[in-house]
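#structure-requests
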Amino acid sequence: MNENGDPDFDDIEAAARRIEPYVQRTPLWTSVELSRALGSPVEFKCENLQSAGAFKSRGACNAVFGLDDASAAHGVATHSSGNHAAALSRAARLRGIPAYIVMPRGAPRIKRAAVEGYGGRIEECEPTLAAREAAAAALVATTGATLVHPYDDPRVIAGQGTLVIELAAQTAPPEVVLVPVGGGGLLSGTAIACRRLWPGTRIVGAEPAGADDAFRSFTSGALQPQLAPQTIADGLRGALSARTLRLARAWVDEIVTVDEASIVAAMRLVFDRLKVVIEPSSAVPVAALLLGKVRAGRVVVVLSGGNVDLDALPWSAAARL
């Protein structure tokens, strides 16, 4: 780690060794039809097929299995609307320790069910960042658990960066790696690893226009508030932290935004052409390609997760009622 406590590539390499027994080596898929539709040769890193259904298992496992035994005995705690909560609950179960999870009311049903299935102990709160942080702090104070933040944690960021080590063994350096951005943990870890392994590759984050604090923060150089985010991409409603903004400004080339209709169109396109289930957050970088926001030669898109309620797909009749 550097003087700011930010992870470096050595931390990512250590994380890859630590989590190897506990996560999947996810495939890299191509589609001639999708590449033609998107206007670029595209490869898809399928973290929607990761353990617990999302890339979050990488950071969660690195944080949990990096704890010493004395700290681990008290368990881990977090606040999360879904994927990180499930991933942390799974990692805690694998280590045999408790996981205390603060989830906002209205979190997707499928994600709450996943947390419960992995044995996470859920406490509900109001759907605001302040309420989530306060409830998580209270849990830590009463249980002695270690807080594992969804993205503002060097262990989590290092874990997320391990997907690039896999990518480097699966493909040649692309012109662009395109990543969804919410709180910035995946974007930060990806950028750190890419700069070491693929220094000539551009790193681009994609964000919903209805939750565009990362775009505004990256552009201005100062943290901008996330004001009542309105997007179907529930996994991207978080806000950058000082750490993830610092890392993005150091290593990321660009952040672009996309509208809601384009997210839905991209999600359906991937379902139809790639024949895999992705959640709206995964569709955001695909939407950026559909809209022509990213123009390059070969692109790798990170499909970040596949935890979606199949009874409420955004193009279904039930979802429109």
